Amino acid sequence: MKPILSLKEVNKNIGQDHIVKDLSFDINPGEIFGFLGPNGAGKTTTIRMIVGLTSVTSGSITINGWDISKNYKQAIAQVGAVVETPELYNYLTAEKNLIHFGRMSENVTKEDIKNRLDLVGLRGVRQQKVGKFSLGMKQRLGIAQALLHKPKLLVLDEPTNGLDPAGIREMRDHFRKIAQEEKIAIMISSHLLSEVELMCDRFAILQEGRMVKTEKISEDRDDKIGLYELEVDQINRATEILLKQFPQLSVNVTQEEKIQLRVTKEQLGEINALLVKEQIVLYQTTLVKQSLEERFLKATNQGGYR
Q1: By the 8 A CB rule, do 29 and 78 touch?
Q2: Which pLDDT score is estimated for 222?
Q3: Locate the ABC transporter domain: which residues (predicted)?
């Protein structure tokens, strides 16, 4: 699959400061990609390079096959963006806002405007003035505006800022619909990790200008070591047996009196067989999945993770 957005060894210097360092990642059609990092990590600078607001010092950014440094006009024509709260005309209706912004792009028809209002669920209020809209409705109209020229990449910076839980869920559903129906690659930068976890397919974590982690939101990877919890009837005896037979493993007992250890699936099978052989009743084995927040804190060495 050909990626919509591709960054290859991208660097950005501002004066003597090296803001972004050898950054590489791809985003595929129909994929929602979370772009995360602490304040000052270089996220905003990276987004500014992707949407053409600042130049690349070295490396390449390619959007739907167009290099932004060599073919700026063609590359930027592939991008739509919403940064926090969109700028709209409150005294115009939703439809007239889109008509106005549509004049800035080539070949935007009345049917395109209707389709975009449909896509974000605003066609029924298209004749209402934007000044009467809720923040969530304005966010959705801003997305419709960003999609008018049929971009292949949608970049969203803090798209759920100021929304209540119902508004956040509504936005999440619309992002999913847009990605699936339009096959648009969506890049979301947000501090709301719980929302990124629910919304995105993959995520990347940036720290001090470098990529420190990129992976799928789902942790179901057969080739990786997993964190497992075992619930047994003789926890002290079971712990002693495991420490004796597997001295290389770190075996911990949780406050809920469960055995916790990091092993492969093959090692887990050996452990279960050993416990059965030693006549220890194994009630339950659970794969413990870390939340995105825990993975973020660990990757950035925050929250006590080292």
Answers
A1: no
A2: 45
A3: 5-233
Q: Provide the β-strand partners of residue 34.
A: 188, 203
Looking at this protein, which amino acid is placed at residue 83?
V
pTM above 0.85, yes or no: no
Q: What percent of the chain has pLDDT over 70?
A: 96
Mean pLDDT for the chain? 89
Residue 38 has pLDDT above 60, yes or no: yes
By CB atoms closer than 10 A (0-12, 13-18, 19+), residue 197 is middle
pLDDT band at 170 (very low <50, low <70, confident <90, very high): confident
| Tokens 């179901």 found at | 220
Mean of pLDDT values over 145-156: 94
- The pLDDT score that the predictor gives to residue 117 is 93
Q: How far is it, in rounded angstroms, from Cα 293 to Cα 291?
A: 5
Q: Are strands 32-36 and 185-189 parallel, antiparallel or unpaired?
A: parallel
Helix (H) or strand (E) holding 30: none
Give me the domains of the chain, ranges plus CATH numbers: 5-216 (3.40.50.300), 226-288 (3.30.70.100)
Two tokens at 157? 């910076």
3-class secondary structure, 54: coil
Other beta carbons within 10 Å of 248: 5
Instruction: Tell me which residue has tokens 């934007």.
Output: 130
Task: Give the CA distances from residue 134 to residues 8, 91, 100, 121, 164, in Å, rounded to whole numbers and listed in that order.
Answer: 40, 14, 21, 14, 11
294 phi and psi angles, rounded to 5 deg: -65, -40
